[in-house]
UniProtKB/TrEMBL annotation:
The lineage of its organism: Bacteria, Pseudomonadati, Bacteroidota, Bacteroidia, Bacteroidales. Residues 696-716 are annotated as: Disordered. Residues 1-23 form the signal peptide. This is DUF4988 domain-containing protein. It holds the Pfam family DUF4988. Keywords: Coiled coil, Signal. SUPFAM superfamilies: YWTD domain. Residues 26-60 form a coiled coil. Residues 29-209 form the DUF4988 domain.
Length: 716
């Protein structure tokens, strides 16, 4: 650069010597040239910084697309940010201001690929190669542009590492000055802000676009299906499956005294103290600390509780009772009468109610129905169904389950007919064996949720549950949290409304169709889910297939994740709020079209303002178009299905085109719409729409009209 400046000065000096006399004063010219040279030289340090920013942008995008995450972000005293990546590389960012007229290098994402953009004179355009192809930021064909200022003070850009330079042009095709009479237009950074939350770091560029890079989400340890409190009996051993990623070291950091806890081969084993243990704690917390071996450390924990073993033999005067199992809903026992001729009744009875009523009242209550059968001559039939002799294996009937965590008596007493033959009377003492049903172990399902690749029309997200139970996940607008009366709804209320929408949509298949071909488990998910929006969601039961539509630009959204039992909520609702950026047109192209309606046919002529601009023009029913909240949401949906159905290459056209849409529905409203689109599938202009109405079956003359925008031959 300095060498070229010297050449310019030498030529200028030669011209002055050839055409001037000794009286000529060239001091003003020399001063101007010196001033220009000084200004250009003063830009060099800023240019180094800006080109460093471009390289940092390149590194951020490569990390995003290469699965590299951010370990941490440190803010320096000078306002800079040091970014530590999971591949042990770092980057330093200094946010600042841009020059008012300076070109801004940025990136935009389309279909998961980032491309370089240039904002000049307020207009953002794609950077392209000599053949007009978009320049990807990373990958095999990735390139990193460089900025410079030439010796005449004009902005230049190189796409080949600095071998070939060309001047940057504004919207009118004129070169852009870097050095003016008022001074330099160079800013001091292409970054305007850096922010972060628990999941991501957000880098806001000077053109307003945002690069979102996940924090180190590949570092976690989950104990699957572990309850908040796990109940043990003496000597009992339980194992739990462990799922982890990015974990290099683990440490059992807490356990009650006398308990044994080990973590080996992704299995956590917990053993309660033996019954003959001399010293132990009956309850406490088990904690596991885990680390990535470098920067990050975290912990998981749950409670344990030791209860007495309620199984065993109890000897009474008339019966021997051996309780073999106690669960949260019942008891199992073997009862043996010491007199084989005695018929006896056995049942589980709430302990508090028994103590309140008294033994005699409970016996009278229990045998009341038996007396009825006896009085009407049916006792011989029912006796062997309701009473037992000898040895009997009792289990709580499934139709009358007990309540978890509640105290009961297993009661046994013999009965025989009195002398009148009209009622039964006890012929043994009432034996009662106390027990307590086990407390319900509530498994606190947790969901690890991460968002990525947020664009103006969609995003990717991943849900990793801590168990294999079913759950719903989906995206709602933040407006869903506001009731009609203006009050704020809870996340649970929004989740219930979300499930209700599914119920209304699939009501016939869920409840009315013979054989019930659709179950709630067909509509919910289980296991790890990796989702993209928009999406054609193909499920195991094809009746549950659905279209996940694009999002609306510049809108607040919330991702909901919540466990369900059928359609009923069984967990708290996990929410992740996010905002879609606004759609940024990348071309100023417009379209003119002429539309002629002839019966049920359309003749369409499309004329783009730029003959080299490629675009898509389609036709759809007005009723479908009106289902969408926003024109760009509709355009993104149209492009998605063109790609999904394999018609994109055929649908993409350029230049003036004459198209037809034939055999449409009669007397039906249609929209003809067009939007600019690159060969890479990037929407470049706003959607333009024209409404038409097909004719009825009568031979009416064609109706012609001219619209300000285009239309297309393919009918969606």
């Amino acid at each position: 650069m300095r060498q070229l400046i010297s050449s310019v000065l030498a030529v200028a000096a030669g011209l002055m010597l050839a055409g001037c006399t000794g009286a000529y004063d060239d001091s003003e010219l020399r001063k101007g040239l010196d001033d220009l040279r000084d200004r250009v030289e003063q830009l060099e340090s800023k240019l180094d910084k800006l080109n460093g920013d471009i390289e940092t942008i390149n590194a951020l995008v490569e990390s995003l697309q290469g699965g590299i995450s951010i370990v941490k972000v440190e803010e320096g005293a000078d306002g800079s940010y040091t970014i530590y990546f999971s591949d042990n590389t770092t980057a330093v960012i200094r946010s600042g201001s841009n020059g008012e007229d300076a070109p801004v290098i940025g990136v935009r994402e389309q279909d998961g690929v980032y491309y370089w953009t240039l904002t000049s004179d307020g207009e953002t355009t794609w950077l392209t190669d000599a053949d007009g192809r978009l320049l990807p930021v990373s990958g095999e064909d990735g390139t990193c542009p460089k900025l410079a200022v030439d010796d005449e003070g004009w902005w230049t850009v190189s796409y080949d590492g600095g071998t070939v330079w060309e001047r940057i042009l504004d919207a009118e095709g004129n070169p852009v000055k870097a050095v003016t009479d008022e001074g330099s237009s160079v800013g001091d950074s292409f970054f305007s802000a850096v922010s972060q939350d628990d999941e991501n770091v957000y880098f806001t560029l000077a053109d307003g676009s945002v690069i979102t890079v996940a924090k180190k989400g590949d570092f976690y340890l989950i104990l699957r299906e572990v309850p908040e409190t796990s109940v043990f009996t003496f000597g009992q051993v339980k194992t739990y499956e462990v799922e982890s990623n990015g974990v290099a070291e683990t440490l059992v950091a807490g356990r009650p005294f006398g308990w044994t806890v080990t973590l080996e081969n992704e299995v956590l084993t917990v053993a309660a103290p033996a019954e003959d243990a001399q010293m132990y704690e009956s309850e406490g917390t088990v904690g596991i600390i885990y680390s990535d071996g470098d920067e990050r450390t975290s912990m998981v924990q749950f409670n344990v509780l030791l209860t007495a073993d309620q199984t065993g033999v109890t000897e009474g005067d008339d019966f021997t009772v051996e309780i073999t199992e106690v669960t949260g809903t019942g008891v199992a026992a073997t009862v043996t009468a010491k007199d084989a001729s005695v018929y006896y009744y056995v049942t589980a009875y709430d302990a508090a109610s028994f103590d309140e009523k008294g033994e005699d009242a409970v016996v009278a209550e229990s045998k009341a129905m038996f007396d009825y059968y006896l009085q009407f001559g049916m006792w011989d039939y029912y006796r062997d169904m309701l009473m037992h002799s000898g040895t009997y294996h009792y289990e709580t009937p499934a139709s009358t389950p007990l309540t978890a965590g509640q105290s009961y008596y297993l009661i046994v007493f013999g009965l025989e007919e009195d002398a009148s033959g009209q009622q039964l009377i006890p012929n043994t003492a009432v034996m009662k064996v106390p027990f307590t049903t086990t407390a319900e172990e509530v498994v606190n399902t947790s969901y690890r949720v991460s968002l990525s690749n947020i664009t103006w029309y969609g995003l990717d997200y991943t849900v990793v549950p801590s168990d294999d139970l079913h759950y719903f996940h989906g995206i709602v607008s933040q407006s869903a949290f506001i009731a009609e009366d203006g009050t704020r709804l809870t996340a649970a209320q929004v989740a219930e409304a979300y499930v209700k929408d599914y119920e209304q949509r699939y009501y016939d298949e869920l409840y009315l169709t013979d054989g019930q071909p659709l179950a709630w488990t067909d509509l919910s998910s289980h296991g790890t889910q990796e989702m993209s929006v928009p999406r054609a969601w193909i499920r195991e039961n094809e009746l549950a297939n659905e279209e996940i539509r694009p999002l609306v630009p510049d809108t607040d959204y919330c991702l909901l994740v919540f466990g369900v039992d059928g359609k009923d909520l069984r967990t708290d609702v996990v929410t992740k709020e996010f905002h879609t950026p606004a759609f940024q047109p990348l071309e100023n192209g417009t379209f003119e079209l002429e539309v002629t309606v002839s019966r049920q046919n359309l003749n369409i002529k499309v004329t783009p303002s730029d003959p080299d601009m490629s675009y898509i023009c389609h036709v759809d029913r007005s009723s479908v178009y009106e289902e969408f909240e926003d024109d760009m949401q509709f355009a993104a949906d149209d492009l998605f299905w063109a790609k999904y159905n394999g018609t994109f290459d055929k649908d993409l056209i350029s230049g003036e085109a004459t198209l037809k849409a034939e055999n449409l529905w009669a007397s039906t409203g249609y929209v003809v719409y067009v939007y600019g689109c690159t060969a890479d599938g990037v929407i470049t202009t706003p959607l333009t729409v024209t409404r038409v109405l097909t004719e009825a079956g009568s031979d009416n003359p064609p109706v012609s009209g001219t619209a300000a925008r285009p239309m297309t031959a393919r009918v969606r």
